[in-house]
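pasting input
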Amino acid sequence: MGEKKRIELDYSKIESDRMRLNVGPQHPSTHGVLRLEVELDGEIVTEVVPHIGYLHRCFEKHAEKMTYPQVIPYIDRMDYVTSMNNELPYVMAVEKMLGIKVPEKVEYIRVIMCELNRIASHQIAVATFGLDAGAFTPFLYFFRDREYILAIFEKASGARLLFNYFWIGGLSADVHPTFKEDVLAIVKQVRKTNKEIEDLLIYNKIFIERTANVGILPADVAINYACSGPVLRGSGVKFDLRKNEPYSIYDRFDFDIPVGMGEVGTVGDSWDRNIVRMREMEQSCRIIEQAVAQMPDEGDVQEKLPKRIKPPKGDIYMRAENPKGDLGFYIVSNGTDKPERVKARGTSFVNLSVLPEISKGYMFADLILILGSIDIVLGEVDR
Amino acid sequence: MGLLNKLNEPYEAGGIILGTFEDILNWGRARSDWYLHFGLACCAIEFMAMNASHFDFMRFGTIPRATPRQADFIMITGTVTLKMAERIKKLWEQMAEPKYCISVGSCANCGGPYWEHGYHVLKGVDRIIPVHVYVPGCPPRPEAFQDGMIKLQKMIKEEAIFRKRKKLEEDSKIELSA
């Protein structure tokens, strides 16, 4: 028998293997069909690679094959939570190319519908963010209110989700006679629910512990990645196209731009991005109230147009503030009734690109929360 | 059920119900269907609305499951792209028998608005997996979802499990002998 050999080990130098994990595309927390390839060191995320393309529905190909009005339903299906806001930059661009001005009443109805849809979109965003954090009740409360908003859209356009309501040169149909009263009743209800949600979810200690100081996005990184919307404003940058580059009639209204201030943690964390959405709902309520007060009752909702819409040769880029951020359309016209090219600047696609940057070094469970706070819609990421 | 109304006046000595075993089994199966939660596109937002307070899908006895192993049926809600088709087939194969499929929305039924120029869209999910109930619409209203669910429940209720199994066994015997 030989001598017993002693093995010297420095236990602090032992490293666990890096594990590569696949999240999605079939996963309840990925907000659609996003697939994330995650590299983990124990429980800490070291690398995130988003794989997209599971909902690529060939939007740009369809835009080449359809006439100008026929493109609008496909734009609805891009960011399917905020269809009204999607339609606005496209119809404004084509109207600018044609050189027509829509009636005053149409502008007001468009603004009211866009702001209502912004509320509906933020309600889904905050509700699903609450679901990611483990709170189910706010989801039920928000969806109760959302049904009232959808009822108004349904009375106006006939559809609950994908409207095809904004047409080139006006609207597809006039609003119903009790439109103003219905909208004001919704504003009241939204304010009441938001107050309840602030007690239930936003200032809840568990929720703050879970989201504050998680996924911090500094302002310079947000600008470098071209983030927009609540993701940018959550980092403390006061930029909103409705104020900075007013389009439509947004310069007539008095409203503020809420920004993240790091109330419970650091500026630019997940909680800040979420509170910006909550406060934007209140600002949308203010815009709606002013618009309803100023809106003319009489008037036509469709400008006279030729049967075949043929914008002159040229190109145009028009952008507008979507609930998710800055949505733009670049349209090239060759003088026929079909666009040569329609390129969309998808907000969610750009905002998603910042995910690998801000989720490094956090726990795996926080990754789901960070993804929820960015609020992506896969229809717009893949188009 | 007329049976529940009689609970107030119970039968003497406990009572006896006559019926086939298959009926009771199907009655139970039709009223506790668990589904694989898999939102694909726009229809998934309407599906969320249906799960929420206004429409309350769970009163049909359904519970969302995140894994195909525990699911009785799968709801294909939205556009199936070619990249996703292979995943859906994989999920369908992982589900345990008896399994059903509801195809929701025009895209899943036949390609919908992406039929003509959608080079990356599967023109109907029934090209890769069997579909039992089709729900039309783009997107369908929550009431249409519920109608599809009632149709599926009716289908399950009238199913002949034992005869079907016997027939399947006989078929497989023939195949073996041939």
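fyi Chain A touches chain B through 34 residues (CB under 8 Å).
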